[in-house]
Structure formats: structure tokens, C-alpha cells
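Progress narrative, work stream C.
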Amino acid sequence: MEQWTEERNRRADLHVVLGDGARLALEAQRELITDELWQVRHCDYADAHVRDVWFMRPDTRIPHVLFAEGTPAWTLYHRDETAEARLGEPHPRGPQWRTTDLRLFGLHHPPCGSDPVVRERFALTDLGLDAQGVTFPPAMTARLVERSARIQQDADQARNQYEQAVRSRMPDPRPARRPWKPTPLPPVRPVPRAPGDRELGTGRRSEAIERPGPLPEPPPRPYFGTSGGHATRGSHRSKTSTFARCVLARARDKALRYVISPDQLGWRSPFGMIENRNP
């Protein structure tokens, strides 16, 4: 029956209050209505928390603004006591279709504004009411649920394939680590030792190495002592160096030149007294 809203700005053709407190406004539109006028009525019902459901005459065009707002629209055949619903055809599946609303990839009601529609007619006695508006018969509801489950399965499979492809292209940031194992030490080899090297930690020479013999004695150094002005070791006179002989010869020549004996001058050589053999 017709009833005004609480603000008394709209009066529905049929006002329905469900058991859960939801309120519905069933509108039977006989004449063509513009988009602007329908939007004004729709906003008034929304402000009053009333869900509006629209039934059009068979020869009346359904404004596409209803589909853009997500409001179901029905065509009422009162002589046949049937109602016709318009469902949107499934959308084509794009590369990222699994991330969008899966309901659009099957028959969906209400359709989108630019969707091709599929018409389904039902008897009025098979339809029901809930907080969202008019509900389909159980057979139609089961068919939509089955298609929705199939679409959900395809979406899950596509999502798994995409994730596997991404993992195969990306390197593992944390490769599996092998368990740590100590590296075996190399075998200890004997160090070659030179003769005379000391053993490590003992301070003793290696007994396996032959010890060198005693050092040879140095040769005796020539020595010329003095005894009465003559050399006491005549055996060493032959070993006098050339330099010493030259010094002696020059000194002897100088003494003979002045006819002065070296004994008179009191001069002694490092090698003893110089004998004047040519008086």
C-alpha cells in the first residue's frame, strides 16, 4: 500500500517492512522518467534509509542511470504475473582480471551501464524479498552461485601461476646455507735443517747433523826481536815484506851518504838495529 516516508517528501507505491527491520519501496513506473528526476527520488529514499526497487512497463525505456547507481530494474508484466530481470553479460578477462571484482566476469545483476544485457523472466510467485531488494528463484540463485565458484577457482589458479612466474624470474635473496664443516689441516712435513741449526724448543743442536771439526790454528805472525843490534830470528828475515825492505834500503843509503852510522844517530828501525855492512 502507498505510504509516505518519515520526512513526508516521498510516497512509495508499495512500502514493505521486513522482519529484520529493513524497509523497501516498490515503485511501478508507467511513464518515461528522466535521469535527473530519478536521481532526486533515489536520493530522497536513500536519506530515509529505504531501499527503492523499480518496476517499469514493457514499453518503457529503463534509464541507464539506474544501472550506473547499482540499482536493480525489472520489467513488470502484470497480465502474465511475471517479471523480467536484466543481467549483465560477463566482462572480458584482461591481464589483471583476478585483482578486480570477480562478480563482473559472470552474469551479474544489476548490470553495468554499458553492459550488453541478458533477459530472464520469472513468475512473481517465485521471487522473494530481502534487504537488497527482489531475490531470484532458488534454481537461478544456484546457477549463479555455481558460476561464481567456477570463476573464483579460475582466479585462484591464475593468481598462483602469476606468483610462480614472478618467483622464477627473481633470484632468491637468501640462498640456502650449507652446514659448516671444519677444513682438515694439511699434513705436517719435516722442515729441512741446515747443518748446525738448533732443534725447536730444545736449545740443543740436532744430533742427526754432523758437527764440524775444530777450527785450524792461525799461522804464526812474524816477530823480530833485538839482541845486540842483530835480528834474533833470521828465519823470518826472508818473510819481510817488500815495503819493509824498501824502507831499510832507503835508510841505509841515506846513512852511507853522510858517512854516519845509524848507531851514532841512535836510530833504530822497527825491526831492530840496521847493520852497516859498508863502513
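Work stream C, second folded protein:
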Amino acid sequence: MSVEALKWALEYAPPMPSSLLPVLTGLAYHADSKGRGAYPSAARLAAYACKDKRQVKRDLRQLATLGLIRPGEQSKTAHLPEGKRPEVYDLAVENVVQGGRAGADETVKQTRKALASSRRRGGPITRGGDVGTTGGAHVTGGAHVQGGVVPTSKEGWCPRHPNQEIEPSVEPKQAGSPAAPSQKSSIPDYATELAAALSSNGVHVRWNLRDAERDEVRDLIADRGLSAMTATAVRAAQRADVETVRYFLPGWRELPPAAPQDGTRPALRAIPGGHRPYSNSAWEEPADPEAAARIPHCGHPDCDPVTRLRDSTTHDGQPWRGLCDDCHPAMRFG
């Protein structure tokens, strides 16, 4: 553990989305005094940050995009079995905020304010170009910050979750161009009960569905049932930050059809009388006396010379009385 690396991550690292700080702190906990050679497993970082491993891997990619971490010397994990070697990272400890992120400098204050505003809008990291940082929280590359202040553009530079969707900008329609599929954000009348069930379970999403998707949701409600669709959506929302109901469609499609509301069930077997448990008493029937008279008794002490049934045990040790393999007429073939 390095106090210097932890101090950099908690106080002097350039501003970042708050969701990335636990993973960055976990890396700093395992780095040396120069911020190098951190290789905790994804599972350990997930335990530190109270996230799942997929979220941790996404956070690592975003930290690398922001220039806060970079690949380190991978030979440090050579002592571990192949296939179980985590990635080695170095912290960009040379990138610092003068006076710390909690400092009273006006530039730092404006950076924090703009970052929080961009985070509320859910803007993504600009993917074009590498992102590096220099002293004074000056960010260069795909997400440029003048004088330590994040520009308040429409989308900002904060990371956007893959489930979040960028609202398309409205452009003037040119003459002769085909009409785009309509997309509505209101909750359909047939889905109000489903939306209420999701909201009561803490799942609040946008209903920005196209016409074809709305028809599909209506058919799914009728075929899969509200309770199964609600349970599936709640489980999915616990694993990820969901912004739109469209995220739940793949899981809803995989649900089996709901049971009929009247409680009826299809017959298990297509024969009169319904289902009949399997039963075969032929293995316990005594031998025909005339047939047994033509076959000598085997002489086994557990075999009855009249019925030709032998006492034995099943594979799980239970007592069983069945046909003698040596002298029962039914066991003579050919």
C-alpha cells in the first residue's frame, strides 16, 4: 500500500466522474510510492467499489481514456498462472491539480461545477483522440478544457452508460427524403400497469419506443404476463444503470409464455384419463408352474424354487424381490 498514491487519487488527481473514484482508489491502494505496478484483480476492485466486474472493467477503460491510468509493466504478474494474470496499471501521478480538488482556487471550483453539471446531463466521453492531463487540471485531446474549466457543451465529457441513448438532434427534413420511424416518449395506454409496477419497484425509465417496438411490447404483455416482465426488468436494473425501456426488450423476448389465467393446464399425455405414472410389474411376476418345471432350479439360497423370484437389493441398497436371472422362465431368451 502506498500513502502517496492514495493521496494523489483522493486529493490531487484531476477531476473525474464520481463513479470512477472507487476503482482509481483501489488501484492506488495496490500501487507503489510512484504509482506503478498496481494489478488487483477485477473481482477485488469490484469488492472495493461495490460493483460487478463488468462495471469495473468499464471504469478502467474510462480512466485510461481520461489519462488517469495507463498500462504498466506486465511482467510483474509473470509469477501468476497463465490465464489468471490481471492487467498491470500505472497511475498518472504526474497529472495533478494544484492545491488539490478540494482547494479554494477559482479555476478548480469552476471545474468541479462544470463537471457536476455535465454529469447531471449524462454526457459521454468524447472518443476522438487520446485524452491527457497536465498541471492545473488542464485536459487536452478529445475532451479539451480551457484553463481547468470543462466546457458546457450539449453533451459534456462525462462518461455515458451504454444503456443511455443520445437523443437525436432535429434536422430540417429535405424534400423527397424518406420519413424516419416515429419515436414517442409517452407511456402507451396498454403499458400503464407495467410502468406503474416498474416505478413501484424503483425502476424509472424513458418510454422512447418506435411504433414497431410499441406493438411488440403490447404483444409481450399479452403473451408473457406483467409479473414476469416486471421481475425480469427489476433484475436487469439491479445490474446496470438503465435509462430506457428498450433495454429490457431482449430479456422480455426470452420469457416463456405465461400460464392461462383460468388455471387450466394442458394434458400431460394425449390419452384418455390424463397422466398415468409409469409402472411395470412384469419384473416381479412369479413364474408359470409349467414353464418353471421345464427349467432346473438354480439352487441359489435367495431364489424361491416355486416362484423363481430372488431376494436382492437395488443400486441404492433398498430390498427388492424380482426375477431370478438364472432360472426364471422369463429370463430365458431364444
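The radius of gyration is 35 Å. No further action is required on this item.
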